[in-house]
Amino acid sequence: MKDLFGKAILDYQTNNNPESIWTETTISSMDEMPVDYLFRTYKDMPIVEQKALDLAKGRILDVGAGGGSHSLILQEKGKDVTALEISPSAAKACELRGIKQVVQMDVLDYQPLEKFDTVLLLMNGTGIFQYINRIGKYLDQLKSLLKPNGQLFIDGTDLIYMYESEEDGGVWIPDGKYYGEVDFTVHYKGETGEPFPWLYLDFETLKNAATLHGFHCTIVVNGDEYNYLAKLTLRE
To answer: At CA 149, angle to CA 147 and CA 154, rounded to 5?
Structure first.
């Protein structure tokens, strides 16, 4: 697959004539994302991300680190943080930004020698699950990365607001699938990537899946765009 997100991130980091990223999904039209959004500072981040960074402690894993902004903020605070990123180009950008511990790997394949006190999945972290029926597979892997008293912070967005309500209060969902399953397509510098699955997950569905797979799950804070930050801890 074309790594267009990673290419844009690395172009920005190396000042290689970066351009905006354009994205579209199966339920939304083309939308522009300036690449510098992936390099924003703490004060420019939404409350759900700020809160997760404030609560991160101990040995920290930043899953899907992207341009490394979350990892860099934590590192500058003196935290022990590892940036995990599947994209080779984005991982390279993280290294160039000075992040000391960068691992380029799919989270499902990651087997560290030492487990973590905090695991972060931010910028709609539930997206990494891809499909509703793969949540358990990812939660079990994330569980294996946590110390017994560890904590996992993940943000998500409930897309129910994008669908029309019926007179009886119900919502009509096309195709009968979970409404948060979408396909993403990325455009960058005249190239178009292959569509890839991304999951926007409502909190109750996340909580039910987390409970089934051995976690306690609570909301830490609600954002202002139908999003939330959840905290998962292991049940004894």
So the answer is: 80
Domain extent, residue 142, equals: 4-234
How far is the first Cα of the chain from the last one, in angstroms, to the nearest whole number? 41
Written as one string, the DSSP assignment of 45-80 is S-HHHHHHHHH--SEEEEET-TTSHHHHHHHHTT-E
Domain total for the chain? 1
Q: Strands 191-192 and 181-188, how do they pair?
A: antiparallel
Confidence of residue 51 (pLDDT cuts 50, 70, 90): very high
Residue 235, SS3 per DSSP: coil
SS3 168: coil
Q: Which letter, b or e, does each residue of 11-38 get, where b requires 16 or more Cβ atoms within 10 Å of its Cβ?
A: bbbeeeebebbebbbeeeeeeeeebeeb
CATH of the domain at 69: 3.40.50.150
Using alpha carbons, select from 191, 21, 49 the residue that is nearest to residue 120.
49
CA pair distance 61, 125, nearest whole angstrom: 13
Using 50, 70 and 90 to split pLDDT, how confident is the model at 225? confident
pLDDT in tens, 133-192: 999 999 999 999 999 999 999 999 999 887 655 555 555 556 668 999 999 999 999 999
3-state secondary structure of 108: helix
Token code pair at residue 61: 């894993």
Write the burial class of residue 221 (CB in 10 Å: 0-12 exposed, 13-18 middle, 19+ buried). middle
Helices 88-96 and 4-13, interaxial angle, to 10°?
Answer: 20
